[in-house]
Design goal:
elongated; membrane; transmembrane helix
């Protein structure tokens, strides 16, 4: 069991719930429906990957170095994907145009995809 990975899973799960509640209740009337839907996408993906981090931390079959590699891709992906969506969704509230960070969202998505790919590769390699 990897305490760092598990702690990150708990942290991202906890903050996904907090951000989700803020998005559902705090943003109403402040941003348009499209922005709220986008914000929700960020919280959904953050929660999915928080749960994945918990599973990764509990997987005894994977070597520590492989877990660390997957962990890095997932955490970087969560931060770049979900957090850029949060900022882009509330940029009108923040008072600036956050479009300059829009490219971080697909980069974060790519990192999440790589994390999933590496996890699948390592699992299938272990069981073959």
């Amino acid at each position: 069991m990897n305490k760092t990975i598990l702690a990150a899973g708990v942290f991202f799960g906890l903050t996904a719930v907090i951000f989700g509640a803020f998005g559902a209740h705090g943003l109403e009337g402040l941003v348009d429906a499209k922005s709220i839907a986008s914000y929700k996408t960020g919280t959904d993906y953050q929660m999915y990957h928080a749960l994945l981090l918990l599973a990764l931390g509990l997987l005894p079959q994977l070597e520590k170095k492989h877990k660390k590699q997957i962990f890095i891709f997932l955490v970087a992906g969560i931060v770049l994907f979900s957090f850029s969506i949060y900022i882009l969704s509330i940029d009108t509230i923040l008072g600036f145009n956050a479009k300059s960070i829009a490219l971080t969202t697909p980069i974060g998505g790519l990192l999440l995809i790589i994390g999933w790919f590496l996890l699948g590769y390592r699992i299938f390699k272990h069981f073959n």
